[in-house]
């Protein structure tokens, strides 16, 4: 089954209304039934210094979330957008899915970055997400930023039926060696034989590309580093496979999973 993909890369600020306006502009050319992926913190804002959280207005963020839901419905797209999220008095780093029918789904980052610890609360689940495209249902897994460093999480999602990975990041650290995170993205795709749909912030210091990678590890589309862009491609989900995963030596190494 084929799916149309759009990856949005753009500068992100701590101004919710500005971010919302940018997202609205990017969605102006969105196509019905398209899977649209936006970066980590795309709506709320994000950065190494999270002190700006003290000035974010929860009411403005809630209104902006409702606006995104309406946009997804109006454009009939499957929208994935990163945001810091306030729930029950605590903040988390979340990836939100807005469906064309108005429903929502939330993934909360499980493995927090060092700058997030003490300010944000980590998620406690690695769920998969079934969505319904015009051609039929598919199942997706979602990961955020430094979770690229933890391949066991991606393998778990593949084992749970994910046919492709949605990856949201805000990777703009000049101290990171060039090419490392790009290599990680290719590895997560090839070792799991799953598509990776990755969106990063547009920043001159960007060290992780926004791109679409095939289950063979091939780059199908890539945005120019640091520039505002929307890249589009079509993927064939029948190419996702378990050929390598099925060959794991479970007699030597067994990963155990306990449900919470």
Fold-level CATH name: Nitrilase/N-carbamoyl-D-aminoacid amidohydrolase
Query: How many domain modules?
Result: 1
Radius of gyration: 17 Å
In whole angstroms, the N-to-C terminal distance is 33 Å
Number of helices: 4
The CATH architecture category equals: 4-Layer Sandwich
**Main β-sheet, in a few words?**
6 strands, mixed
Give the secondary structure arrangement, pairings included.
Elements (H helix, E strand, L loop, with lengths): L1 E8 L6 H11 L8 E3 L20 H18 L2 E10 L2 E9 L5 E5 L19 E6 L2 E9 L6 H9 L4 E5 L11 H13 L2 E5 L11 E3 L5 E4 L6 E8 L24
Parallel strand pairs: 1-2, 2-3, 7-8, 8-9
Antiparallel strand pairs: 1-12, 3-4, 4-5, 6-7, 9-10, 10-11
Can you offer a commentary on this structure?
The protein is 20% helix and 29% strand. The protein has 260 residues and is of the alpha/beta class. It has one domain (2-247): Carbon-nitrogen hydrolase (Nitrilase/N-carbamoyl-D-aminoacid amidohydrolase, 4-Layer Sandwich), CATH 3.60.110.10. It is globular and about 50 Å long.
Which short descriptors sum up this protein?
260 residues; alpha/beta; Nitrilase/N-carbamoyl-D-aminoacid amidohydrolase; six-stranded mixed β-sheet; 4 helices; 12 strands
């Amino acid at each position: 089954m084929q799916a149309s993909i759009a990856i949005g890369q753009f500068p992100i600020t701590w101004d919710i209304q500005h971010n919302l306006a940018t997202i609205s502009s990017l969605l102006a050319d969105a196509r019905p039934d398209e899977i649209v992926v936006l970066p980590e913190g795309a709506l709320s804002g994000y950065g190494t210094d999270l002190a700006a959280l003290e000035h974010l207005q929860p009411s403005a963020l809630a209104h902006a979330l409702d606006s995104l839901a309406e946009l997804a419905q109006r454009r009939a797209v499957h929208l994935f957008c990163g945001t810091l999220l306030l729930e029950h008095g605590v903040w988390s780093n979340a990836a939100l899915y807005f469906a064309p029918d108005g429903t929502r789904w939330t993934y909360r980052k499980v493995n927090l970055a060092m700058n997030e610890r003490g300010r944000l609360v980590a998620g406690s689940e690695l769920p998969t997400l079934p969505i319904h495209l015009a051609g039929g249902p598919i199942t997706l897994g979602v990961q955020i930023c430094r979770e690229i460093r933890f391949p066991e999480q991606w393998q778990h999602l593949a084992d749970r039926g994910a046919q492709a990975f949605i990856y949201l990041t805000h990777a703009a650290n000049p101290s990171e060696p060039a090419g490392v995170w790009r290599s990680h993205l290719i590895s997560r795709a090839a070792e799991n034989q799953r598509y990776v749909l990755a969106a990063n912030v547009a920043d001159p210091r960007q060290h992780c590309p926004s791109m679409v990678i095939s289950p063979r590890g091939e780059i199908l589309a890539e945005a120019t580093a640091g520039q505002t862009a929307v890249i589009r491609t079509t993927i064939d989900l029948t190419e996702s496979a378990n050929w390598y995963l099925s060959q794991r030596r479970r007699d030597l190494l067994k990963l155990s999973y306990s449900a919470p």
